[in-house]
Structure prediction request, 485 residues.
Amino acid sequence: MRAAGRRLLLRGGLAAALAGGCVGVARGQVRVLFVGNSFTHGAYDPVLTYNRTAITDENAGLPPGHPRYEDPTSSAPGPWSGVAGIFQKFTAQAGLNYEVHLEAINEVTLQYHYANALSVIAQSKWDCVVLQEQSILPLPVARGGQPTVFADYATRLEQAVHAANPAAQLYLFQTWARADLVEFPNQPYSGSSVDVMTQDLHASYYQVAATNGRFAGVAPAGDAWLRAMQAGVALRDPFSPPAGRLNLWAFDNFHPSKWGSYLNACVLFARLTGRDPRTLGAAEQAAADLDITPPAATALQAIAYQQVIGSTPLPVTLTAFAAQRQPAGVQVRWATASENNNSHFDVQRSTDGTRFETVATVPGRGTTAQPATYTTLDAATPPGPLYYRLQQVDAGGARSFSPVVTVGEASRGPGVFPNPAREQVLLSAPTATAYRVRCARGQLVAQGTLMGGGATVGLSGLAPGIYLVEFQEGNRWVRRRLCKQ
Prediction:
């Protein structure tokens, strides 16, 4: 009944207002302004200039030297349109009267917009304003971000817009995990996963919206990207692409591809209008113009629906997954931030990276918002390199897979997992050993013994920062660096 009721609310203009969309009641037209950067305009054709005659690029034609100048050496000459152009095409096909404007500058933050584009943003004519931050700034400080600066200027822009039009609705346009920051060495998320980066972005955007209280909501594009990957619609790793999956990243591995921008536009369409993006259908015109196949278009529409309207949360938010060879076999460890209707995990092993068999089944936590850490030992391991993945199964039998991790011939030494960590951390060593944890000033904050090679240590009482974890090996102590978020 609840789902049917929600669909009923999506019919007609007033229904869109009740569902949280932007509606210009008095005028019969909605004026929406997209504020952002190259993630917003798409960076590359065919998205960058798609449908540009149907929208207004507020920065088009400004001279060189102007702070909002559109540099044609880094992108195609303006006017630009990007996701705003796709969104406008959607609204026109849906019979909605949306006047769409874009104010997007390459590589800049909301702080830059506040300093250089406030005359555009703080106008009374806007019914809806969508703010997208630069891709790094919302991340935790330990990952190179400045989340307090993001929150500060998102709030300043919200206040400026509402000072001009108290009835305006503001949305935060969540960014997505960058493959280049995950897959390349010496990057903020090297050795981690798109799941962890998405979780950090989700937390930052939703924290700003919740703390401020005057935003209409978040357009969860980054969450939709992860959903598409977990559903097998999109690939996780552009460097090892499985056949038949869409690459949401462009060739640079961080800007959106045409499929990524299309999914972003579907999320925005659902969030801003309250309409079901699946009603756009296989014959949707923007997809045809962008050479996106009908099956791909409908799959992306369905992902956006599930993320924004369907209220079908991902069964598990996986924050870490690793496997390490031990004297007794291979220890497989993983961590979750939350679980919804989660039945169990199947730990699967392969000797060739293609054919997998289940070697252990571990019960899940059902439904919980609390983080959890899991570990299991695969004792009967054959020689040679091994490949591991998780198959997560919910109570209804639906299945999703984790990324694949590789274990070499030998892997020795103590470990800290996950790292960075928030609530708890798993310490491991090849044999039973003593451990101790020190803060950056050298003060001892925890100590104990790893019985059976591993122990879970709670971190909730520790302040965020860098800690040293020391493991005793004979007469010496081996140190590992731990980042507490």
